[in-house]
Amino acid sequence: MPTDTKNARRDRRLLARVLAPLLTALALIMTPATLVPGAGATTAEAASVCQGRPARTIAFATGELRLYRTRHYACAVTVAKRPGAARAMAVSLQPRGGRPAVQSGRFGRQAGPVTVHALNRCVRANGSVAGQGASTGWILC
Description:
The protein is an alpha+beta fold.
C-alpha cells in the first residue's frame, strides 16, 4: 500500500476521533430544555434550597417566610417579595429545647437557609425583610 493512502486513512481516523466528541457535545448543548426531563423547572418549590416538603408559608408585607420539613430536620428561608438591592434580612429557626439557628445580614433575594434537627420536636421561626417580618408560635409538632 502506498504511504499516501496510509497517511490519508490515519488523518481521517484522527479527524473522526476529534470531531465525534465535539459534535456530540454541541448536539447536547443545542438540545431544547423542553426535551430534557427535569429541565426548565420554574416553581419556587422546584428551585428551593431547602430539602423536604414545603410545610408552611407565612406571607408578610415585604416578603415571605418559607418552612420545609423532612422527618428529621426543619429548614427555613426568608424570601423578599421584590428581589433587587441588598437590604436587611433575617431568618431564624429554633427547635423546642434547642438554640436558634440564625442568619441575618444584607441580602438581595433571600436570607437562609437555616436548618435544625427537629425529630419529634416543635419549631419556632422568625423572618424579616427591611424591618417588617413575621414569626410563628411553636409549629410543625
